[in-house]
Structure formats: structure tokens, C-alpha cells
Amino acid sequence: MLTKRLSLVQAVLMAMALVVVLFPVFWILMTAIKPPTDWNASPAIWFPSQPTLINFKTLFDPAAIREYGVGGVSQAATDAVFGSILASVTATAISVAIGLFSAIGISRYGNGSKSTPLVILSGRMFPPAAIAVPFVIMFSTIGLIDSFTGLIAIYVAVTLPFSTWMIKSFVDDLPREIEEAAMMDGRSRIGAHLTVTIPLIKGGLFATTMFVFILNWSEFMFALVLSYTNVSTIPVQLAKYVTATAGTLYGVQAALAVLAMVPLVIVGYLIQSHLARGMTFGAIKQ
Amino acid sequence: MKDKHETIDEVLAGYDAGRMSRRGFLGKMAALGVGAMVANAVSMSPLGAVKAFAAISGPEERAWELAKVAAAKATKKTLTLLIPTGSIGNMTPYVDKWKKELGITLEFIEEPDEVVHTKGMQEAVAKTGRYDVMMPTAMSYPDWIDSGVIYDLTDWTEKYDPELFNPDYGVVFPASHHAQLYNGRVAGLLNDGDQITLLCRADHLKNADKAKKFEDTFGYKLDVPKTWSEYYTLAKFMHDPAAGFYGSLEYRSPYYVKWMFMQRLVSKGRLYFDGEMNPTFNSEEGVAALEDMLAMNEFLHPDAFSFTWSSNYNAFGRGEGFMNIVWPSGFKYSKAPSTGPATTGNIAATVMPADTLKDGSLLHAGLFCWGYGYAVSKYSANPELAYAYAQWMTSPTISSDAIPYLGGYSDPYRVNHMLKPTQRLKDTYSPEYLQTLYDNMVNTVPDFCLPGGFEYQDALDKQVHACMTGAKKPKEALDDAARVFDRITRRIGKDKVKKSWLALAKNLAEPIKKAAGVDTW
């Protein structure tokens, strides 16, 4: 592996960039283990004098934080965590699966007209706020409001342009000759795609999946306007930690944010080699 | 199928018309779930049965009788409330009673408070019927009524009389009008007396050295400020940044800063519009209000530009300032040892300072800002039950019980809450502060409770904030806000907004109306 020593200037710049990127993460982590008295202290408390897991406990037992004299938390985050996992995982799987086949169809067979990719992308050309209300009316009419089916459907609709375009760029960069060689060896068209195309763009698929998952996982507006009580997600739940007796519950919010980061960090770590490859796939044109 | 309530009305009317015997009347009323004592008293009343049924008991009992009838006929046994996050604590103590005695499950859908208005407007187009009761601020009523998402409650209030305007235990005038009515019709029932008052540190006022130094310097006794001029003087005198102690903690942060301006503007005898909907804040008084605020910036807490209500209350509770402009909840924060370790037992509260008018007279004006209330969704499956809940919760008796519960935003709003408080209300707020709330509330001017109210207020907020940060000069900021106001008025329709504005303006305290010239409009 090629290693390169950084110059002092590069190292300093790199360190500054890291501080900028990692400081919010550090602050969230520290706030998540602070007792309520430290959340909003002035001057700010950098490291909690008495670290506690009370904020995490409050996520699943709203009454727990009463031991600190803070009342008014009425909802556990359990439903929101479950809702985020269900909606994000399902919507990501569907979006990437449909995007994959759309991408192969467009890239290899020229399905649709030349404008098809643009038509698919056009779904992303509207600001989400502009299409939220029509979706509310439509979903109310067909009974999909406040349901996971509805939320997953809209997540797929919103992320499909991304997955299609991203995967298409990976497929475009893969020489057709490799698939043709597989077919000369007796593979069917589908077989060639399953055994050659998809394995060869695996890094790109992982990168796309990760990207789409992050979009779904952090989505706020649609989850807010399309939900009442049956459906909740982590970003919506985060906005609800305000009480009359203690104001914004920064510690509990931070604890939920830490939980929200966990799957992204784990998945990112597990597929980091694919991610690196996926991110650079197609960087060098044929 | 006729509903039971119609039948009650028919039975009452029928009895008055002599179409049934007393025995038959009592039997029918019992069958409809009306208690024997009530039915008996109604049957013998010289007022006649219809009037007697409405008058025999207080708002709570009338609401409960209606709730019993409506609950019995309801096919959906759940009453769903859209409420702002953080407000649930005033409502949860009654969940069991509604379940056990009426068979009605109270379900709460909590949304961030800045989202409640939007959720209501969303329901206007989605028509899901998911909500029965909605809890917005008074600023939402015009848009919600106009969009058809909530009921005009007037017919119900006339029938079941929640006694909103009773001088002894009604909602304090003028909040009774500006926080509940839209164009003279009842749009919602107030459940939260949000107004701002001024808190000072009593321990510093009592400090003999400071008192002497102050009197020697300024020639009058050290006390809570009675005018904005005294407020400035006190802030300057008490300001000690080296000790982490600041003159005052009022807000300069986006979203909150408009209220600081609006308060000063109304203190100077100006309202937001004239009788023809021309903005009046970009005037000599408006500029002076902004200049007063700029002058105060020197003596504010360094976090003033980023304060939210909770960070502001916490800073004051930690003892980081001499004065603070707060909602009633701020007093509760400062009074409680857990949230006000430095302020508990050390608070001197007063009405908002007065300002001197051109004729030399003093004008006391307050600001009623925010203030939640109950509205009934047009798409509710059980609107009468929803109304009954709203009247019951806001009745003089139940509200006195509900307000002191922790974990809710509800603050005193009825006359009896402040002038004839229960022991729990006294324990929560103190008799002195309840009197202060009353004295301040009678002079309040409301938020922009008009069609497009949130748009007006946001436009003003942006410009006031721009002025506070130095991005714009006072006159420039206010002229820019006035231009946006004119555009909003044109878009919504001048006649429509004007009608609503005149209805608001005519129901203000007389000195404020006189100073603003409302009587000449």
C-alpha cells in the first residue's frame, strides 16, 4: 500500500478539518451523558462532572428523568426507533432494487426515450415542501396517511431518482464486453447481469445503498406531515423533546441522536472498503 | 336517527310547551342520562326548562352533562387532541375520569409547537378527521376558521354558556375577546394566559448599600421600574458583567425579538395598523422603540441574541441578571428551587413598565403573546363531545385545578384564577404575582390575531432582528417591514383583514384605544 507522509501544513489543515467535522459529534456525545443541570450550563461544561446514562434511559422510560426534577416527557422513543428502522430499511431496499433494474435497463437497453433518465430525475426537481401537501391529500384519499406503507412509498419515490442515476453511472462505466463474454459462455442476459454486472458494481451498489439509507434515515418533513400517531421516526421524535418544566431536553435529544448515528457508523465501518471503491468507481473514464 | 342531544332539547322545549307531564319529563331526562337532581330542579324552575337547564349549574357541570350525552351517542369512543409538545401535563390528570365515567379515551397527538398551526392548515386540505380538539394559539383562529378546519363555537357557547365574559370568573378582558374571538364570533376557548411581565431580583432591591447609592445617584428610591426610562436606569445601575451579573435578560434572538419591540411600541401608544390597515410601527414611536432596544443591548445578558425561553429562564434562575421579561411560566421557573436556585424567594414581579405619551401622561400597556386555546375540528366525528371537553377543561373550576399541574403551559386566564385563587394556584404563583398578572392582563394588546397573522409577525421579526444586529437602521428596518405588511394585506384582501383588525382594536383597554386613536377610526 502506498503511504505518503503529510507535510506539517497538510497535517495542520487536516487536523483543523477533523476538528470541524468531529466537534459536533463530540458535543452530542458529551451532552448525551450529561445530567440535566449540565445541558445548558453557562459557561459550557465540556466534560460532564458526573456522567450519566439517564438520557438514554429516558428514551425508553419517559418517567426516568423525573429523578432530576424534569417532568413532562410523555413519549418513549421506542416507536420512533422502530419506525425509522422499518421505513428506512424497507424503502432503501425497494429503492435500490428498482433503481438497479432501471439503471441496467436504461444503460444497457436504452429503455424508454433519451429523456427517460431526465424524467426520472425530475421527481427531485421540486422542493419537497411543494409536494408535501398534495401527497397529504392523495394519501388521505387512498388511506395511506399515518401508515408505514405510505411513508415507505414516498421514501421510495423520493430516493428512486438518486439510486437510478447513481447506479446507472456505475453500469455505464462497466464495459459491455464483459457481459457479452459471459453470454458467449452460455449465460442468459439476466444471468450475465446477475453474475457479472452486479458483482462488478458491488462497491457502487453499497455506496448507493448507504447514500439512500442516510437520506431516508434523516428525512424529517414527510415523516412529520404524513404522520399522526401510528407512524413516528427518529427525526420527528427529536423535535418533540420540549417540556414546560425544563424547556428543550438537550441531553435526551443528544442521546437519541447518538442512537441514530449508531447504525450509520456500523454499516459505514462494515462496508468501508466497498464505499471507497464505490465512491471512486467511474472516476477514470474508458 | 335523531341524536340524543337533539332529544334533550326537544324534551326541554316540549316540557316548556306543556306537551308532557312532569313525571314524563323526569323519566325522559333520566333516560337521556341527565341526573335526577338536575332534572328535578329544571322541571320546577320558574325560568322554564330550557333556560333552567342552561343556568342550573356552572360551566363545568353544563359541559359535563353535554359530555355525558355526547359520549353516550358517540360511535368513536376516543377523543383525539392535537396539542403542542410540552403541554400535556395540564391534561393528563383527567384522562382516568373521562375513561371511567364517560368511557372516552383521551388520545394526545403531540407536535412541536411551531408545527401545530401548519398541522391545522394541513388538516384543512387533508380532512382526515384524525383530530377532534386542536390546541393552537389565538393567532391560528382566523386562518383556521377561514379555511373551514374548525367550528365557529358561538352557537355552542350561547347554548352551554362557558361564561367567558362573566366579570367575576370569566376570562379577563380584553383577552376574553382578542384571544378567543374572530370577527366577534367565538373561535376557541382560551386555556393559557400567556402575557409577559417583568421580574426583578428582590434581594438586590433590598440591598441597603445599593439602595442608598441608587437614591443618592438618581434621586428616587430603588424599586421595581414603573416606566421604561426607570427600567433602563435600573439595568444600567445593576449591570456588573465582571461578576457575570447583567442588567436584564430580555430577548434579542430571532422569533422572540419581535415581542420585545411590540411591547415597547404599544407602551408608546401605537398599535400595528391604523384604521385603514396602514402599518403604523414605522413611525416616530416605532423608531424610538427600536432605539430604546438598541440602547439596552449594552446591559443585556451576552446570550440575549440566542435565548430561547428555556435558556433564558435557566440563565435568570442561575442568578445571571437583575431583570427579566418573562411569560408566567418564567415566574414559576424562578420560584422553584430546582430551576431557580438563585432566584427562589428573591423575585419581585411587576406589570410591564409604562411609557410617557406626548401629552405627558403615562400609558400602561401589556402584551398578550402566544396563549393556547381549544378549538373543535370541523372533521371531528364527535364535535359536541369535543366542545364539551373544551368547555369542561376551561371552566372556572376545572381550569383552577388544571393550571397548577407541572408539565404543561397553561397559565392563569380567568378572573377567579387571579383574584379568587385556589390554594394550589397561590402556592404555584403566589398571591402577589397573581395580582400582577391580573393588573397586566387588563391592559394587554394581542399578537397579530388576524388572517395571515403568522406572516405579519414573521416579517416584523426579521426586520427587528436585522436592526438589533446592526444590519439595518431602525427606520430602514421598519419601512421594510411595512412594505412587506402592505403586500400581505393586499394579497389576503384589505377588507377582510381590516374587518378583523377593527374587531380586535375596538376591544382593548380604553387608555390604549385613546392613545392609539382607535375611537376616531
Structure in words:
The complex is a heterodimer of chains A (286) and B (521). Chain A is mainly α and 286 residues long. Chain A folds into two domains: 1-74 and 241-270, no CATH class; 78-239, MetI-like (MetI-like fold). Chain A has helices spanning 8-32, 36-39, 54-60, 78-109, 116-122, 128-141, 148-172, 176-184, 189-200, 202-217, 221-225, 234-238, 250-270, 272-280; strands spanning 242-243, 247-248. In chain A, helix 5 runs antiparallel to helix 7 and helix 7 packs antiparallel against helix 10 (202-217). Chain A is globular. Chain B has 26 helices and 15 strands.
- Give the strand content of chain A: under 5%
SSE arrangement of chain A, N to C: HHHHHHHHHHHHEEHH
Estimate the mean pLDDT confidence of chain B. Answer: 93
Shape of chain B: globular
Radius of gyration of chain A: 23 Å
> Largest interface by residue count?
A-B, 27 and 39 residues
Instruction: Assess the beta-strand content of chain B as a share of residues.
Output: 5-15%
The secondary structure category of chain A is mainly alpha
- Overall strand count of chain A: 2
CATH fold descriptor of the largest domain in chain B: D-Maltodextrin-Binding Protein, domain 2
Which architecture name of the largest domain in chain B does CATH use? 3-Layer(aba) Sandwich
Average pLDDT number of chain A:
88
Low-confidence stretches of chain B: none
Per CATH, the class of the largest domain in chain A reads: Mainly Alpha
The termini of chain B sit apart by: 51 Å
**CATH level-two architecture of the largest domain in chain A:** Orthogonal Bundle
Rg over alpha carbons of chain B = 25 Å
Number of strands of chain B: 15
Strand order within the widest beta sheet of chain B = 2-1-3-14-6
Shape of chain A: globular
Short structural description:
The complex is a heterodimer of chains A (286) and B (521). Chain A is mainly alpha-helical and 286 residues long. Chain A has helices at 8-32, 36-39, 54-60, 78-109, 116-122, 128-141, 148-172, 176-184, 189-200, 202-217, 221-225, 234-238, 250-270, 272-280, and strands spanning 242-243, 247-248.
